[in-house]
Amidinotransferase
Amino acid sequence: MERAATRRHYLMVRPTYFDVVYSINPWMNPEKPTFTGLAVAQWEGLRDLFTGLGHRVDLLDPRPGLPDMVFAANGATVVDGRVLVARFRDSQRTAEAEAYLEWFPAHGYTDVRQARWTNEGEGDYLVAGSRILAGTGFRTTLRAHRESQEYFGVPVVGLTLVDPRFYHLDTALTVLAEDTVMYYPKAFSAESRELLEELYPDAVHATAADAAEFGLNAVSDGRHVVLPQAATGLIGRLREHGFEPIGVDMSELLKAGGSVKCCTLELHGTGLAGRSH
């Protein structure tokens, strides 16, 4: 199958203040040393890769005291130019929302508000064609799903996560194209697995080993799939499905429970998507 890339618009935050000084997910260990310079180098490589593929990358300035702010995907969801800013579960991250509430209006977005219910942006909301796939179970709440469906005016399909290692939907599932996803089945409840099988019978399935390497925390433009280079099994399966995988090293950022997708907030509906190249 011939896969076509479309130009995307991303928002990213440089990991200037990256560190692991608390633990709010199973991957974080404050006793394990971190190297901010290495995190910055890995992040810069990802940003340069996106721009090299023809995508637009805007930057939101990092703020001191917010070491997880590099994970821009958690900050908001943007659909058709409407912005729903996150309401974080954990107190260590709540101050990040203010930066997004300021950035979007300053850059021409007129429909911007913060979620009422706990909602961690594209960590749990993934746009898939005419629907939004929405995770729940650890962070984003079911009430937030209803709120998002009303705000964006598109169907929101709830999926329940059951493995605490995969606490956001974007750690367990990647939207590859409008009608294609890849995911780790055991990260989901039985009911959600049945729903995914019904919606995406030709999905790419990840093994436990590739999921543990954060191979599903990936970004696709419809053809190129940027993912952690250690997810070697997924890289092979993506090629079999006609995609062009590009492996990158995000090992330093993984110490905080994030990788490619966590660092990348897609701004849907800004006039850039939909152009083949």
